Amino acid sequence: MRSVATILALALCLCSGVALQADDESVKKAPPVLSFDLKDLDGKSVKSADFKDKYIVLEWTESGCPAVKPLYKAKKVQKLVAEYKSKEVQWFSVCSTKHNTVEGLKKFTQQYGVEHKILTDFDGKVGKKFGAKRTPHVFILKNGKIFYQGAFDNRRSGENYVKKALDELLANKEVSTPRTKPYG
Fold it and tell me: Rounded to whole angstroms, what are the CA distances from 42 to 3, 51, 114?
């Protein structure tokens, strides 16, 4: 009788160990939850936590970038922001370039008719956390989970990767192309 109890106890310990090991491995494989707390051009704090259960588009930008300027000059970004504003998608441009200034970014917003918020990350900490490499580099997230990251569009074909990803997400579908290479 004692040996049956010992075997059961040993089996329980082994099963518990396997369960703990599986939990540990799943935690290791879980994608990181990303967040941000940045200032807008008026010095007001903008936190990802304030947009729980909403899609957030973070578009890394640079007012002097030769890949960014054509997007804004052609109003591609501004039109997309306006299209998704009514669908409760929060769009923020983020500037992680240390040689930019608030004044310079305000001129950029006036020059190109930018109505969405530009957030400052002049020390680059948030950009590094997200892995933003170039401008433009776009991330779509919700509750800290990234659904798309990469280029704004395909400069050759004109396909807008961000629009496609947002349309799929808002239709409760998986993003068919969750990652592209930013080109800036």
Answer: 73, 19, 14
Helix (H) or strand (E) run with residue 182 in it: none
Please tell me the total count of domains within the chain.
2
Residues recorded for the chain: 184
Q: Tell me which DSSP letter residue 159 carries.
A: -
Q: What is the model's pTM? A: 0.82
C-beta separation of 67 from 184 below 8 A: yes
Are 11 and 96 in the same domain?
no
Query: Tokens 């936590």 belong to which residue?
Result: 49
pLDDT tens figures, 106-165: 999 999 999 999 999 999 999 999 999 899 999 999 999 999 999 999 988 889 999 999
What residues make up the domain containing 6? Answer: 1-30
C-alpha angle with apex 114: 110 to 115, nearest 5 degrees?
A: 110
**Contact 136/66 with Cβ under 8 angstroms?**
no
